[in-house]
Amino acid sequence: MIEVSHLSKKYGTHPAIEDLSFTVGDGQIFGLLGPNGAGKSTIMNILTGYLAPTSGEVKVAGFSLPEQARQAAKACVGYLPEQPPLYPEMTVQEYLDFAAELKGIKKKADRKEQVRKAARRTGLEEVLPRLIRSLSKGYRQRVGIAQALLGAPQLIILDEPTVGLDPAQVIEIRRLIQELGKTHTVILSS
Fold first, then answer.
1. Is the peptide bond before 129 cis (omega within 30 degrees of 0)?
2. For the chain, the helix, strand and coil percentages under 3-state DSSP, each to the nearest 5
3. Tens-place pLDDT, residues 171-183
4. Fewer beta carbons under 10 A from the terminal one: N or C of the chain?
5. 3-state secondary structure of 76
6. Residue 185, helix vs strand vs coil
């Protein structure tokens, strides 16, 4: 699923990542652990095709990055950034419909089905009609994870999915990640 070989990324003269190599097989849950500033988010941004490495080779589902980033990101990657880009004035339903359309799910019936599946998978069915601003942080994280599931990606990348959650919400999100690991490759940072 993922092959990273001798990956490096510099910002000017400051190295964010130096000579990193790893592989992640299909259906694995893989964690990037480290202190703030260790390069975890940079690695995730490279894996999603949003950021180009300074050097090294990266393949996601057989696509070489950054050359084939558009195909890889659209075809097989769902991403939850550390700060999910949620619109508080939208309902959960509206936001997920919007995200599905942005991901290129053209047919309205297909979007509806994808949103229904993602909402069920993340435990959002009951809150679909609610405004995002009225949800707890844990439910907002679930909305972010649900949008990452749209388009049926093979790889789910979750950047700090439990940051700022209370202990009960952390347990719920960890259970959800374990469930996702049964059908997806998952990379998460902490």
1. no
2. 40, 25, 35
3. 988 998 998 899 9
4. C
5. helix
6. strand
